Each structure stands twice: as C-alpha cells, then as structure tokens.
From TrEMBL:
The keyword Transmembrane helix applies. InterPro entries: EamA_dom, EmrE-like, RarD. One of its GO terms (cellular component) is plasma membrane. NCBIfam families: rarD (TIGR00688). It is found in: Cell membrane. Belongs to the EamA transporter family. This is EamA family transporter RarD. It comes from the Bacteria. The gene is rarD.
Length: 313
C-alpha cells in the first residue's frame, strides 16, 4: 500500500511539473517568432531526438534502448500505437507554436482547458475508468465553463479543439503503449525526425541556412527547443504511467492558467466577464475533483451511493 501511495505521489508531482513547464512555454516560442512555425516545429523534433540520445548515452542505456526498439518492431499493435502517438504530438506541437506566434495565446489556454474533458471521456470510453459522484459533478462544472467560452466566442475555436483532441489522444496512446519515459519519447521523435530533416532540406538551400548559424541567438534557441520539449514530455510520460488518465487530465489546468496569465498580462489579449465566469467554474471543478474521493465528500454523497460503497467494502 505504501509503495502504491509513493507511486501516486511521484505520478502527481511529475504530471504537475510537466504542466507547469508547458504553461510557460509560450514565453519561449515568442523568442523565435521570426522563424516560420513549420521550421520551428522541424527543429523541435530534431533536437528533441538528439537530446534524448544524449540522455540515453549518459545513462548508458543505448544498448537496452536498441533491444527494446527491436522488441517493439516485433509487436505491430504497440508500434502502431507509438506511431500514432508521434503523429498526434506533432500536430499538437505545430498548432501550439502557430497559435503562440500568431497572437492566440488565450486560444491555446482554452484548448488546454478543454483537453481534460477529452482525457476524462477517453479514459471512460477506452480504459473503463470510473468517476465518483463528485468527480462527475466536477466534470459537468468544467464542461459548462468550457462551453460558455466556446459559444460566446461566436465561432468554432479550431486551434483550441485541435490542441485538445491531439493531446488527449496522445495521452491515451501513451497509456496504452506502457513504454518507459525515456524509451517512449526517443522512439516517438525517432519516427518523425526523418520527415523533419527532409522538410528543412527542402525549404532551405544549405545546412547552415537551415540551422540559422548566421544568427547565434536564434540558433541557440532552436537548439534549446529539444530540451524545453523533452523535459516536460518525460515528466508527463512518467506521470501517465503512474496515475489515472482522469487525474492526468485535471492536472493540466496548471498549464492553461499560466498561458491565460501570459495572454492577458504580457500580450494584452482580451479577457472579459465571460472569461471570468468560465474560469471560475473550471477552477471550482478542479478543486472539487481534487477532494472528491476524500471521506468528507463520501459522507455527503447521495444516500444510494453511500449504500453502494458500503456493500462494495
């Protein structure tokens, strides 16, 4: 039981750390706003793969990685799950970079507020996860908050929906594949790095031009994209393997809140009374979800659910 509690604690801390780093990521992508989003994405993929290889080498896990990679290629279903995870995270990365560099930071915030709802639904549909009464209420509160934002925008927020769906599906596939954090991310970036290299060589006339070596600051920032990408993904993978997809989904409220603060206070994007209402509902949902399984909330569940819990115990 103690080991289980420790695993849960590590999972929650890893997930929270990942979402904090993702929450401040717009600050980083704004620094490379002069580079086309497609090229930033390509560099992000390539340098993430390089960074992962360095980590494996430092930890002396190259040989074990090769063995695991060989084993995965002999399991078509697992390989397919990883391939689709690579695809969805690539879509997510591009949508995020494009949105930040086209002044839609609040749209990214909305996307990552919607994502927990997607994660909860995917967990219920595909992983047979169950919600308690108060978790269900918190889910409904969050849904009302998000729908209020969506409908008051007056148009379908495509960027937000793409971010939410792509990352929700990525989380589901990571849960299904059950790969270690190091192995999973290395294989994902390995699968998409060739496409990134081909793209850069197509749009740029030389390697030096593709790497932006003429601008040392831009070159350094693009190089660092591997680190700022890999570290939170490693934390996320570690957390996803230890806690439920539903909990992972609700931890993500950390990231969009930080994005919202940046969009409003740093980049002067509009924040209206509609946003206040919706975000209040969402935060209320988060607090309720966090305490939903405590003894206090169990005691104030509807009587028929209390009787059910007594029978199960």
């Amino acid at each position: 039981m103690k080991n289980l509690d420790n695993e849960q604690t590590i999972g929650i801390l890893s997930g929270a750390g990942a979402y904090f780093l993702w929450g401040v990521l717009p600050l980083y992508w704004k620094l490379v706003g002069s580079v086309p989003s497609e090229e930033v994405l390509a560099h992000r993929i390539i340098w993430s793969f390089v960074f992962m290889l360095i980590i494996l080498a430092v930890l002396r896990k190259i040989s074990s990685f090769k063995g695991e990679l060989y084993a995965i290629f002999r399991q078509p279903k697992k390989l397919m799950a990883i391939a689709f995870a690579s695809l969805f995270i690539t879509i997510n990365w591009f949508a995020f970079i494009w949105a930040v560099n086209h002044d839609h930071v609040i749209q990214t915030s909305l996307g990552y507020y919607i994502n927990p709802l997607i994660s909860v639904l995917l967990g219920i549909l595909f992983l047979k996860e169950r919600l308690s009464f108060w978790q269900l209420i918190s889910f409904l509160l969050a849904t009302i908050g998000v729908l209020n934002l969506v409908f008051r925008f007056g148009e379908i927020p495509w960027v937000s929906l793409i971010l939410a769906m792509s990352f929700g599906l990525y989380g589901l596939l990571k849960k299904k594949a059950r790969l270690g954090a190091l192995t999973g991310l290395t294989i994902e970036t390995l699968l998409i790095t060739p496409f990134a290299l081909i793209y850069l060589m197509t749009v740029r006339s030389s390697v030096a031009d593709a790497l932006y070596v003429q601008d040392s600051v831009i070159f350094s920032l693009l190089l660092g994209a591997g680190i700022v990408t890999a570290v939170p993904l490693l934390l996320f993978a570690s957390g996803a393997n230890r806690i439920s997809l539903s909990m992972i989904g609700f931890l993500q409220y950390i990231a969009p809140t930080l994005m919202l603060v940046q969009g409003v206070f740093l980049y002067d994007e509009s924040f209206t009374s509609v946003h206040v209402v919706s975000f209040t509902l969402i935060w209320a949902a988060l607090i309720l979800f966090s305490f939903a399984r405590t003894k206090l909330f169990r005691r104030i569940e509807p009587p028929f659910l209390q009787r059910k819990h007594s029978l199960e115990s």
